[in-house]
Amino acid sequence: MRKRIFTRKRVLVAAGLLLVAVLGTIGTAGHLAFLRSPEHTPAEACGGTTARPAVVGAGASMTQGTLGGDWVGALRGRPEFGGYEFVNAGHNGDTAADLLARLDTDVVACHPAAVLVLVGTNDARDGTPLERYRADLTAITERLRSATTARIALLSLPPLGEDLSTEINHKLSGYNTVIKETATRAGVDYVPVHERMLGLLGPESTRQPYDFSFPLALTAATRHYVLGQSWDEVARSGGRALLVDHIHLNDRGAALLTDLAANWLTTITHP
After folding, report:
1. Does the structure show a pLDDT above 90 at 21?
2. InterPro entries given for it (predicted)?
3. pLDDT band at residue 16 under the 50/70/90 scheme
4. Could you tell me whether strands 114-118 and 54-59 are parallel, antiparallel, or unpaired per DSSP bridges?
């Protein structure tokens, strides 16, 4: 009997240790993907004086780049832009209204030479009315034009899920129309991220519809940060070509965005 009780205690202790290890692993992945700050935040890069002009990427989690490919970091690593300070003003979960609220501290304070704005995915997911989104995006653009001398680019939004026939992607097209119209009306540049990404999606019969969930995102983070899989491998494991969790970009999608942003920056640095 005593031996049986001792064995049971050992099993319980082992199970408890395993649970702690699993929770610790998940916690680490969650922290790295959702809670930690990106590299070169505005507070780090713009707090003092720098001899290099700043290029700011402003937006939500797709710009923060801790869950999925980091396009701002990729631009920072390009030798042709070595004369610039790349600032990551992405923040998980932000809508256009959220970005507008922190625009002065996170973007204007950097005295940027160029600003790339990628925001609106969460507005589409949350159902922000299009006219409210238009007003917020217009206010962002007008504030940047009045408070800085930066060249400004508005980037269209990648698809939500890769099945373009879904209701949410029909809704998303309205937000992308607003982005293009706002850029034209304000006289700033428009970068066609959405349009270029469509060419990288797989055959229509294989495209996965939008089905984002927090557990899926946490699983993607664990695969990458704990198991060492690339974001491309994480996406492929779910049958997706560009998105790790139906929202955030894999390495391939981030590379396309990086190339488009780099091409735009080249036009303003070497006109």
Report:
1. no
2. Ester_Hydrolysis_Enzymes (IPR051532), SGNH_hydro (IPR013830), SGNH_hydro_sf (IPR036514)
3. very low
4. parallel
Q: What is the mean pLDDT of residues 244-258?
A: 98
What are 238's two structure tokens?
């779910």
Are the C-beta atoms of residues 88 and 64 closer than 8 Å to each other?
A: yes
Q: Tokens at residue 178, please?
A: 């607003």
Residues 6+ apart with CB under 8 A from 159: 169, 172, 194, 197, 198, 201, 242, 243
Q: Are 90 and 72 in contact (CB under 8 A)?
A: yes
HSE at residue 116, side-chain half, CA atoms within 13 A, is 29
Supply the pLDDT for residue 36: 85
The sign of the dihedral angle between the CA atoms of 126, 173, 93, 160 is: positive
Annotated domain spans of the chain = 37-199+251-269
Better-predicted residue by pLDDT, 6 or 129:
129
Answer whether residue 121 shows pLDDT above 90: yes
